[in-house]
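How a chain folds remains the central question behind the approach discussed here. This step matters because it turns folding into a mapping between discrete strings. The sequence in question and its structure tokens are set out directly beneath this paragraph.
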Amino acid sequence: MSTVGKVIVLVVLLASLLFTLVSAVFGAAIVGTFVLESGESVDKSPQASFTSSVSDGTVRIEHAAGDSIPADELTVVVGEREQSWASLADGDGAVEQGDSVSVSASEGETVRLVYIGGESETTLVQLTA
């Protein structure tokens, strides 16, 4: 093979190696960006404990400990009926330790306290009246 032929083969090999390296770098950048962005969009539910009690058709739910939660992000579901904590407590501030609401529920009805914040929905309390 002539010298010119060897140079052409060497140029082609170097060009393909360079293309492979550039593709790997861009691929890693795209994957890294996706992973970092997806980690930022994770919504976290508040860490809070609630207690509940049932007496004569009334269910009482009380914030026992943990994070305060905006009242408009909590919904009490009784059967098919939904009502915000804010409307039950006549206030839209933060729900903190010691705050409570009461709702009427028929015997056997399911009662849930649901946190709805950002893109997530989490049941914090579920009981049968």
